[in-house]
Design a protein that fits this description.
Distance between the termini: 58 Å
Number of domains: 2
Helix content: 40-55%
Radius of gyration: 28 Å
Order of helices and strands: EEEEEEHEEEEHHHHHHHHHHH
Number of helices: 12
Shape: elongated
Length: 348
């Protein structure tokens, strides 16, 4: 890395390790500024995403947490860098902003106010906050979308009971239905998981698409409530329902399930966070965990039960990809082939 200030003593530091008092090399690679305060914004997964370094001379430097920046090692001379050096230069009353490509540091818009006493010294820079963002509208299925999903006859418990009565010899289905018929609470993550597991057992193991859809639809009409744990079960149910409907030629109904599945992706109103979320999501679609190592290990150990459990998890991951229309690495036709292979393996 070559900088105009290479003759000075600088060391590379990850943005997440910056501390108050550090002399940071600014994005123009010519000036340094002392950090007055460091704040960290986490992403939706709880990991550090953006480091906000408030500079002594005014202004805020926004840096991706994983970026590498340069910090001066030696103590600076008292006259080497004045507070005015810390702020980007512009005309009186003007504005300056620096931005970078994905992952690079970014300066917030900074406005310099003229001094009241007419002296040439610049007043401290003032960070101009972005305009307030309106809160997102409540997320949920529209009436037109819900019209394509058949209304359940009776209570949710009666839907589960009817599905279990159709398969009196299926022990797994009976165990799940016994728990669920005592009362279905859609605020309970374990209850939603049981419903999702029941729908998958009905379709994957028992080939009962009709009852599987009826049970899945108890979940499919639930909106995203911001809880990733509960949403994982709804997500799996939507992906399953989408696949079943595609196989039955109900394209319009399948498209509604896929729309519901992707609804949380569009809820972020902050453009920067939305861009980061989209990249993370695309990476997860391009590099899905298909449990290859675990399946091969179970095969090597001659453990068919473990192999089947891992294949069920792989099938769930493939159904999720299929509901998203595939990815940049696995297309729709290839997904259909792989899903068919996994269904044959676990049913056999």
């Amino acid at each position: 890395m070559t900088h105009p200030t290479a003759s000075l003593n600088y060391s590379e530091r990850q943005a997440g390790s910056l501390r108050t008092g550090d002399l940071l090399l600014l994005p123009d690679a010519e000036r340094t500024a002392e950090i007055q305060r460091v704040d960290v914004d986490n992403d939706d997964f709880g990991s550090p995403a953006i480091v906000r370094a408030t500079l002594t001379g005014g202004g805020v430097l926004r840096i991706a947490a994983g970026s590498v920046v340069l910090v001066r090692d030696a103590e600076p001379d008292a006259t080497a860098d004045s507070p005015a050096d810390a702020a980007p230069e512009s005309g009186a009353g003007g504005a300056a902003a620096a931005s970078a490509d994905d992952g690079g540091p970014e300066l917030q818009l900074v406005q310099h106010l003229p001094a009241d006493d007419g002296s040439p010294a610049a007043a401290p820079a003032v960070v101009v906050p972005p305009p307030p963002v309106a809160p997102p509208a409540a997320s949920g299925p529209s009436e037109a979308d819900l019209a394509l999903i058949p209304v359940a006859e009776g209570t949710p418990e009666s839907v589960v009971e009817a599905a279990a009565e159709a398969h009196p010899e299926a022990l797994g289905v009976l165990l799940l239905s016994d728990r669920l018929t005592k009362g279905i609470n859609t605020k309970s993550g374990s209850c939603l998981k049981d419903l999702s597991d029941l729908a998958h057992d009905l379709f994957v193991v028992l080939k009962d698409a009709e009852n599987a859809l009826a049970v899945a639809d108890l979940l499919n009409v639930l909106p995203f409530d911001g809880n990733p744990g509960r949403w994982a079960s709804v997500e799996a149910s939507l992906a399953l329902a989408s696949y079943i409907c595609r196989q039955r030629g109900e394209e319009e109904r399948a498209a509604v399930y896929e729309k519901f599945l992707r609804a949380p992706d569009a809820m972020e109103t902050d453009p920067f966070k939305a861009r980061i979320n989209a990249k993370v999501r695309q990476r997860s679609l391009n590099e899905p965990n298909l449990y290859d190592k675990e399946i091969f290990r179970a095969i090597d150990n001659s453990n068919p039960d473990a192999e089947r459990e891992w294949r069920l998890l792989r099938l769930e991951a493939l159904l999720f990809l299929r509901a998203h229309g595939g990815s940049q690495t696995i297309g729709g036709p290839e997904l259909e082939r792989r899903i068919g292979n996994e269904l044959e393996s676990v049913r056999g």
